[in-house]
Amino acid sequence: MQPSNIKIKEKKGIKKMAKVKIGKEEYTIPRLNNKDIKKMERYRVEKKLDSLDFDTYILIYTIQKANPDFKMTIDEFDEAADAGEINEIREKINDNSGLAKYIEKTKSKNLTPGIGKV
Asked: Most buried pick, 23, 50, 75, 116, via CB within 10 A?
């Protein structure tokens, strides 16, 4: 439940959730919140992921949030989508999940483009 003193503005231009296609399946892209960012950062540290694997993990995590039956490891995801698809998926996820704005803020504060300090 959302505290009464916090107001979340509805994003202009985002009326329905975007979808990405991986193979023959289509998946919904949800908005992420600060709790999601923290979970992803803890996972990165715990698993000692390099930047490429962490980038893939962000995509997987975001897709799984709205699609609980989506089950892929980082290696499976890397094999399932070609480089062109990965870029398209990344753009849709960054734009529609809210990550694009977060990434810009972290870049301006000398943090990594994903999450956390360099």
From this structure: 116
Kindly state the percentage of the chain with pLDDT values over 70. 71
Helical H runs in 9-98?
34-47, 51-66, 74-80, 83-97
pLDDT in tens, 1-43: 444 443 434 445 444 678 888 888 899 999 899 899 999 999 9
Handedness of CA 59, 84, 51, 118 (dihedral sign): negative
Residue 54 forms part of a structural domain: yes
pLDDT recorded at residue 68: 93
Domains of the chain: total? 1
Assess contact for 49 and 42: CB atoms under 8 A.
no
Query: Could you tell me the residue range of the domain that residue 61 belongs to?
Result: 19-108
Residue 113 in domain: no
